[in-house]
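Request:
You are asked to prepare a plain-text protein record giving the amino acid sequence and the C-alpha cells, at your earliest convenience.
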Amino acid sequence: MAQNRFEAGVHYPYQLNIKKILKTPLIYSPQQEIVYSDKHRYDYRDLNQRIGKLANGLEQLGTRIGDTIAVFDYDSHRYLECFFAIPMMGSVLQTVNWRLSADQIVYTINHAGAKTIIINADFISILETIWPNLQTVKHVVVIAESGDRPDTKIPIDGEYENMLHSASAEFSFPDLDEYTKATTFYTTGTTGNPKGVHFSHRQLMLHTLAVAAFHGSYHSMCRFRSNDVYMPLTPMFHVHAWGFPYVATLLGAKQVYPGQYEPQKILKLIESEKVTFSHCVPTILQMVLNCPAVKHTDLSNWKIIIGGARLPKGLAKEAMDLGVEINAGYGMSETCPVMCSAAPNEHMLDWEDDKLLDVIIKTGKPIPLSEIEVMDADGKILPHDGRSTGEVVMRSPWLTKSYFKEPEKTEELWRHGWLHSGDVGFIDEAGYLQITDRIKDVIKSGGEWVSSLDLENFMSQHEAVLESAAIGVPDEKWGERPLMIITLKPQYQGKVKEEELKEFMKQFAVKGKLPKYGVPDRYVLVDAIPKTSVGKLDKKVLRKAYHE
C-alpha cells in the first residue's frame, strides 16, 4: 500500500483524502441535521464524534490499515458513518449488496477478503446461511435497532451502538496517501460471478468535487446546493449511493436517510422533512408516483436525478405533471459512477414541455473532468453528428483502474486507452449522448438493429402502461423479432388489448421515429416484470422465459 509522502523539511504534500470532506460542514453548518427515517436525528458535530467513536471501536477489534470491512445495512446515518470512518482509518469499505443470491454474497466477501462484518439484525438470517462458507471473516458487529441482541449462534463481537457508546470520540486519523484504496463494490453481473470495482481516496474526492461543481454551478434544472434537503433513493450499497452522500456532506446539507424503501414512508419524509433532492432508478420513481398517498403530497419542490436505466418519456411527463423537476443522468459501477447529466442548457429552460422532455430524458452531457465518446470496432472515435453509432467509451480521473483480481477482464474493460461501457449510442451536435441499447440487448431483426430502449420509451407514453420491457425473441425468417412485455396501471387492467398497443406503436413508425420493421408483433401483458437487485429490468430472466 502507498505510504505517506511527507518528508521533514519539504512543503506539505496535501493529500486528497476523505477526511478533508468533513472539515467544511463543521465550519459552515455544524448544526445542520442528519435524519434517519422517523427514528433518529443529530447534527454534523454528532456525526463527526460518532465517526471517531466508530474508528476507535473498530481499532479495538483489531482493525488495521488495509483491512476490508463489509457492511450490510439499510440507507441510514450509520451507513454514512461507515462511508467516512472506515476509509479514513486506512481500511477498505466493502458495501455489500444484500439482494444478491447467497452464493454471490459469499463470493464477494471472500473475494474482497473482508475481516469484519457490520450487519443490521434484519440480515442475520442471510449471515447464518452463508457463515460456514466465509473464509476470512474474524469479527461481526450487529446493528440491533430494536435494542435486543439477535438470537443467533454466530459469534458476535458487539452491538454497533454499544460499541460507539463505550468508545472515545477522539481518533487520530492518518494523513493517508490519496492513492490509498478506500472502497470496494461488486457489480451485479448478469453472467458469472460479480466483478469487484474499487476506488481510491483521490478518485472519490475528485468525483465529489466534480459532481458538486456541476450540480451547484450551472444554471439549469435539478441543482443541488447547501440549502437543499437530500434523501437518497439509490441504495448506499450501490456505488456509494452514486456518490451523493459525500457531496451532501461536503455541502453541509440536511440529509435524510429513509431506511427501507416504502413508498408511503418516502412520501411522508418528503413532506415532513421538506426533501428537495433525490436520485433513483426509474422503477423506484414509478413505485412512488403510483402510491395512492401521492395525491395528497406536494412534490412541487422535489428535484430528482434518474439513472441506472433509461428515463421513459411517459414517466418523466407524469413526474413533471406533479411539479417534480427531473432529468436523467448516466454512469456505471465502474465509473464511481456519475459521468454525465441531461440537465438542459440555459437557453432550453423556457422551451415548451414536450420539447424540453425530449432533452431531459437523453443520456446527457459529460460533467466537468469527464470525457465521453463513441467508438467503432476498430477503435476509431466517431463524429458528434447525431447518427454515427458505436460503443460508449469514457475517461475521467475517477474511473476504476481495474477489476479486483481480474486482469483479463480488466484488459477487456480498458481497450485503446478508454473504459468500454458495453453500451451503444451516439452523440449529437450539441454534445448530448444518447444510449440506444446495451450491446447484449440490441434486437437484430433482418440484419437491422432495433433499440429496445427506444421501444420502451415509446411504449411508456401510452396512458395505460405502467412499465414495459422489449426483448428480441428467435424468429425463423428474421432471426429475431421484438417482443413487448407490459404491465398496466391498476385502473386499466383488463381494459386494454394487445391490438390497441400495437396500433399505438405503429404511430411512431408513421411519424418516422421508429422503422416499420421495428414495430413489435407481440405484446404480452403480465402482472410484474422481473428486476435485478438494484431495480433494473432483468432482461436476462425475460429472454430465458420468452425465447421458447
